[in-house]
Known about the structure:
mainly alpha; 2 domains
Amino acid sequence: MMGKLNELEVRIQYQIExxxxxAALENLGDGKDIKRAWxxxxxxxxxxxxxxxxxxxxxxxxxxxxxxxxxxLDQRKQAKMQWVHDPSHSNxxxxxxxxxxxxxxxxxxKKEYLKARIGGLxxxxxxxxxxxxxxxxxxxxxxxxxxxxxxxxxxxDLVTDSHSILDR
Length: 168
């Protein structure tokens, strides 16, 4: 994100987006409820960044997460924003329904993905493809592990700073 903000055109677009959103916030009220005001500010910053900086990328460690899941996330965010702007009983009920639907959809997608992977492991077992079978089993046992970028310097100390790693 910071790399994109260094570009002049993107930075100007982001500033315009933020000023437009905060101009709309000034008309909301006198700010009696601080939590609601903070939620509005936070959501406006996120939405501005999403629209102007294209922060709409899918995470790589969730292969079952697709565009349909992204649509459910957007629905949930919109329901939450409606609730933040107007915390009436109907908006609370709508938010709870949308949350339940989104969670149910995510669970089902994950189950389908795991069933497909297990089916692939079964076929590997049936056709005696042992290497892929054991790789798949190890992936299940280990789960997701983020990469760590750590090297040792000349003294033997661990270095985690990206510039120091590149120099090394």
